[in-house]
Specification:
The complex is a heterodimer of chains A (256) and B (344). In chain A, 40% of the residues lie in helices and 23% in strands. Chain A starts with a strand and ends with a helix. Chain A is α/β, with parallel strands linked by helices and 256 residues long. Chain B has a domain of 234 residues. In chain B, strands 1-2 form a two-stranded antiparallel ribbon. In chain B, α3 runs parallel beside α9, α3 packs across α14 and α4 packs across α12. Classes of the chains: A alpha/beta (256), B mainly alpha (344). The interface between A and B is large, with 61 and 47 residues.
Chain lengths: 256, 344
């Protein structure tokens, strides 16, 4: 579904991605873990067109998407959330979710300008779909609040709703468990499983909370120093000496 | 799913009824005023249109441009000069100026694609100064610093101020309704999304370049149209009517009325122009008062007067940009929706 092949990127001579190769299968939940500075978020930024890779190729459903601008990648069915919640404070919660449907409005500038009847229909449908999505996330009661009027954890859930409302093929989640309590992390793991089973969406999950990674992911890729150092089943990867050495630490097994 | 019925107040304020009713009242009152007050009212009406355009660019789309007075000026000059040099009728000159300036405004998106905030402000300020230099120095076409006399327009046996007033009032009302309509759709959400966070907007499929281009083009077209009407009202076009001081005045109108609100685009110009006229006798105080107003609003009322008035009247400050679609049901009452793999 999503293939990353030999992707490299440097910032001012510092190599932040180094020949990274991995893929996310159809309907798969893939965890991307690694120490801070490993290049995980940079990789997500390269996949979504925010940064351009110096070399390598990224393809979505067999179609090359490297070097496309972000909005065109999004329109092809790849959506993401951000490490720091980026809801629009000037829009209500439901309008933030409607933003996820923006690439497909059935009307153009003049239709909107002159109040074409199709505009009202599309807007009604978009609001309805967005409300359903919020409902699914358990956030419908906050629909009319401003985007900035929610707690950090609630904003994360709305951001996921916004990314999901267009039914993307691939969803990238950048540390969605940050700031969530342990019971909320379990709820999130359950939600991720439902996203996959009900929508058939493939998920790439960057996360430091191992509880979520182990509960939600089918496979785990570990990055360190911009390179992929391990790729496999969660229990196998977490036992890999290289992963223990560079990320988990020897205390990981002592604690678990 | 239960549906909440919109209140009569929201139907009246949300539809075309209230703006058209207010425009009719203003027309009746305006035509009964003496020529000086009618001139002042027409100036307010034209500046309302101008600030609607500036608000689309600055308030809704977050593009800090200082070239709006220059675009307003090019509109006024183009409309006037087409009539003076080529004997083009006013209506055609006005439309040609609007289309031409829309093109210029669209080109101004080029710096906006690479710059933002203070850097964009400086780049657009440089463009404005360049335009001002051309207006002053290209004397064979623009008549230089002394300006030129623009032909008056007269309709239905009315005098030139009455004609300019009615044309401006009808145009501004239509402009208000069309822009408000646009901002209530997906286009309005895209403007706000680009303003609030362009990276997140792009990641959700919003074409940031297209949105910025549209904002610049639309605000430029409105500025040019307002400029053309202003040339007809003044009957005389000169560079000092469109200099940096005018630009700052426009910013004050936008901030005082309320950035990113349609009502603010009406309140701001009205308040600032009335104040300007009241203080005309004591010119020295004008700059001090406007400067203090700007600092005061930025510090203590950054959203401007429109959201404050809405709060006082018990309405949500976000009602102007909400989507056209009716608010369906009370969210808390909704039954949980279960979607299948297709999301149906």
């Amino acid at each position: 579904m999503l293939d990353i092949r030999h992707v490299s990127l440097s910032f001012g001579g510092h190599k932040v991605l180094n020949d990274a190769t991995f893929s996310v299968g159809k309907g798969e939940v893939l965890g991307l873990i690694g120490p801070n500075g490993a290049g995980k978020t940079t990789m997500m930024n390269v996949i979504t067109g925010i940064h351009r890779a110096k070399s390598g190729e990224i393809s979505l459903s067999g179609e090359k998407i490297s070097n496309l601008p972000s909005h065109r990648i999004a329109a092809r069915g790849l959506r993401r959330t951000f490490q720091t919640s980026l809801l629009c404070s000037g829009l209500s919660v439901v309008e933030n979710v409607m933003l996820g449907l923006e690439p497909q409005p059935a009307y153009g500038f003049w239709g909107a300008f002159l109040g074409n009847p199709r505009v009202r229909r599309w807007e009604e449908e978009a609001r309805e779909k967005s409300m359903d999505m919020l409902d699914w996330m358990g956030m419908a009661k906050f629909a009319e609040r401003p985007g900035s009027g929610l707690s950090f954890g609630q904003q994360r859930l709305v951001e996921i709703a916004r990314a999901l409302v267009s039914r993307p093929n691939v969803l990238l989640l950048d540390e969605p468990a940050v700031g969530l309590t342990a019971p909320r992390v379990d709820e999130l793991a359950e939600k991720i499983a439902r996203i996959r089973s009900e929508f058939g969406t493939s998920i790439l999950l960057i996360e430091h909370v191992m509880q979520l990674v182990l509960n939600a992911c089918d496979r785990v890729v570990v990055m360190s120093g911009g390179a992929v150092i391990a790729d496999g089943k969660p229990d196998v990867v977490t036992a890999d000496p290289k992963v223990v050495e560079s990320y988990l630490g020897r205390g990981y097994y002592a604690e678990s | 799913m239960s549906e909440t019925k919109p209140s009569l107040l929201s139907v009246v304020t949300g539809s075309w009824v209230l703006p058209v009713f207010i425009a009719c009242v203003v027309a009746v009152v305006g035509l009964g005023l003496n020529p000086y007050l009618l001139f002042l009212l027409t100036r307010i009406v034209i500046f309302v249109m101008l600030i609607i355009g500036l608000n689309v660019l600055m308030g809704y789309s977050g593009q800090l441009s200082f070239a709006h007075a220059a675009l307003f000026g090019i509109g006024a000059y183009a409309t006037g000069l087409l009539q003076v040099h080529l004997d083009v009728p006013f209506a055609i000159a006005l439309c040609a100026a609007t289309v031409g300036v829309m093109g210029v405004g669209t080109l101004m998106v080029l710096p906006a694609l690479r710059l933002s905030g203070i850097h964009l402000a400086i780049a657009t300020l440089a463009i404005a100064q360049a335009v001002h230099w051309v207006l002053v120095n290209w004397t064979s076409v623009t008549f230089g610093a002394g300006g030129f006399r623009a032909p008056a327009i007269r309709l239905f046996g009315l005098d030139k101020t009455e004609t300019a007033f009615l044309v401006a009032l009808v145009s501004t009302t239509i402009c208000y309704l069309l822009v408000r309509q646009l901002l209530r759709t997906s286009f309005g959400r895209r403007f706000i999304a680009v303003r609030d966070n362009a990276v997140a907007a792009a990641a959700n499929g919003v074409n940031v370049t297209a949105v910025k281009t549209m904002a610049f083009a639309l605000s430029a077209a409105i500025a040019a149209f307002a400029g053309g009407l202003y040339s007809a009202l003044l009957g005389f076009v000169a560079p000092e009517s469109f200099n940096l001081e005018q630009m700052i005045l426009m910013k004050i109108m936008t901030v005082v009325g309320g950035l990113g609100t349609m009502v603010g685009a009406v309140i701001g110009p009205a308040l600032v122009i009335v104040l300007q006229e009241q203080l005309r006798e004591s010119q020295g105080w004008l700059e001090i008062i406007f400067g203090s107003m700007l600092i005061g609003f930025v510090l203590f009322l950054p959203s401007g007067l429109a959201p404050l008035l809405k709060r006082l009247s018990g309405q949500s400050a976000r009602t102007e940009t909400v989507a056209l679609a009716p608010r369906t049901g009370q969210p808390a009452d909704r039954k949980p929706a279960v979607m299948n793999a297709e999301g149906n």
